[in-house]
Amino acid sequence: MRVSMKYNSAQTACETFSYGEVEDYSVNITSGAPANTTDVPFAEELTNEGNDIYTLYPNPASSMITIKLIGIEGEVTARIYDMRGAVVKFQVLTDRINNMDINDLAPGVYMISIDDEKQPIAKQFIKQ
């Protein structure tokens, strides 16, 4: 890799200059630590079916989100994923209206997936 710097101004492409510096560097690329991966469940087909099995509010949220289940029975779980696909929160939902504390999440965009033993339904929300 070659780095060139011109004294007291910006250089132009292929310019020859009297004052400045040109340096050559070597960059060695070696294998690093293995990457962490997370399997994220996804739907094989996109439909509108199931999109109304729960509501999520407020959105955007700052400290707490409320998940209102509509017509879901059996064991229901909620998983919050960051944009890298890592699970950052998990909660079993036991009531029709459930609260999740999100105070410890950094501000950003998250996906919440509600799984009712049939298929996970994901929605996006913003943490302020």
Report on this structure.
This protein has a domain at about 55-125: Immunoglobulin-like, CATH 2.60.40.1930. With about 130 residues, the protein is mainly β. The protein starts with a strand and ends with a strand. A 4-stranded antiparallel sheet has the order 6-5-8-9, with no helix packed on it. It has strands at about 1-5, 20-25, 55, 65-70, 75-80, 85-95, 95-100, 110-115, 120-125. The mean pLDDT is about 85.
Question: Gist?
Answer:
This protein has strands at residues 2-6, 20-24, 54-57, 64-69, 76-81, 87-93, 97-101, 108-115, 120-127. The protein is mainly beta and 128 residues long.
Distance between the termini: 41 Å
Number of helices: 0
Q: Any idea what the CATH superfamily of the domain at 54-127 is called?
A: Macroglobulin (MG2) domain
- In the CATH scheme, what's the topology name of the domain at 54-127? Immunoglobulin-like
Residue share in β-strands: 35-45%
At CATH level 2, the architecture of the domain at 54-127 is: Sandwich
Q: What would the average pLDDT be, to the nearest integer? A: 83
CATH class of the domain at 54-127: Mainly Beta
What topology emerges from the helices and strands here?
Layout: E1 2-6, E2 20-24, E3 54-57, E4 64-69, E5 76-81, E6 87-93, E7 97-101, E8 108-115, E9 120-127
Antiparallel strand pairs: 1-2, 3-4, 4-7, 5-6, 5-8, 8-9
Could you name the key traits of this structure?
Immunoglobulin-like, 128 residues, 42% strand, mainly beta, four-stranded antiparallel sheet
